[in-house]
Design goal:
The structure holds two protein chains of two kinds. By secondary structure, chain A is an all-alpha fold. Chain A has six helices and one strand. The longest helix of chain B has 61 residues. The chains are: A mainly alpha, B mainly alpha. Strand 1 of chain A pairs antiparallel with strand 1 of chain B.
Chain lengths: 225, 75
């Protein structure tokens, strides 16, 4: 009738492996196994003579049986090979006492010449204190309008709306200063000319004075004689 | 530079600029004082030059008198 109707009349097939167990497969029952027991192995009445007898009794002690037929192997230890120079340093790394852990033995160096390391925390502390000292000893502008800015640690920007005018004025100021510089050089040249004229005037005055003295001497000293 | 964009000046640079402007203003004041001093000296110089000119005129007149007195023939 149904889907399993066709399966009903068929015999169950035993599976070869356990991995492929299906729902519709029936295993052989335990009663059938008892009906077909496993055959016992044949009893050995006598041990074969060619096998060697063990030299151990029940107490576990070795028996000194000379009739044992074990094959003897050559167990002579190989001769110790001479060590290389490079291998000699390895002795330091091998402990003579196997119970002790293997720690290499190093030769003690003369540490008196080497400076003792400073603790890292101390260095950081020193650096921090020096930075604080530099910040504290930094010269501060005492002007009133700068005191507000000194309190601010972050960079402060000021907006300039008249930047263009300021820039133009600065350029004009530069030109004016150049003109003032040229005027100064012109005045300096005039002063030098004036000085040279004064020197000429001084010489002419001296000349006039000498001539007047000569005239004075010629007229009045000769006339008085 | 883009027109209409706001321009910001850093405070440290602003301080430097303000200091520099103050120094320049002080120098301009000093220059103005020096120019006034030079003007005063120039006025004194002008006065001395005026005196010099007057003295020269006096000397010239006296020399003319001497010249006329000594070398002009009297009939």
């Amino acid at each position: 009738m149904g889907l399993f109707g066709s399966v009903k009349g068929k015999k169950s097939v035993p599976l070869k492996s356990s991995s492929g167990l299906g729902a519709g497969v029936s295993l052989p029952s335990s009663e059938k196994r008892v009906a077909n027991p496993i055959p016992k192995p044949p009893e050995i009445k006598k041990a074969p003579e060619d096998l060697p007898k063990f030299p151990v009794d029940m107490s576990g002690k070795h028996q000194n049986n000379q009739n044992t037929q074990f094959k003897s192997y050559n167990t002579t230890q190989p001769k110790e090979l001479p060590r290389l120079e490079s291998e000699k340093s390895f002795k330091n790394f091998v402990s003579s006492d196997p119970s002790k852990p293997f720690f290499p033995e190093f030769e003690e160096e003369d540490s008196s010449e080497l400076p003792k390391p400073t603790p890292l925390r101390k260095i950081e502390k020193d650096l921090k204190s020096s930075r604080l000292f530099e910040e504290k000893t930094k010269p501060i502008d005492k002007k009133a309008h700068f005191e507000l800015h000194n309190e601010i640690r972050r960079p402060l920007f000021i907006r300039t709306d008249q930047y263009k005018d300021v820039r133009e004025n600065t350029i004009e100021l530069k030109k004016n200063l150049e003109e003032i510089d040229e005027t100064y050089y012109r005045i300096d040249n005039l002063m030098q000319e004036q000085e040279s004229e004064f020197n000429i005037f001084k010489k002419s005055l001296e000349d006039i004075q000498r001539k007047l003295i000569y005239v004075d001497k010629t007229i009045f000293e000769k006339g008085g004689e | 530079m883009v027109e209409g964009m706001p321009v910001f000046i850093k405070v440290d640079e602003y301080k430097d600029i303000i200091d520099m402007i103050e120094l320049t203003q002080e120098k301009v004041k000093e220059s103005r004082a020096l120019l006034e001093k030079i003007n005063e000296l120039k006025a004194e110089e002008d006065a001395e030059l005026e005196l010099w000119s007057n003295s020269l005129n006096v000397v010239d007149k006296k020399l003319d008198f001497i010249d006329r007195s000594l070398f002009e023939p009297r009939y």
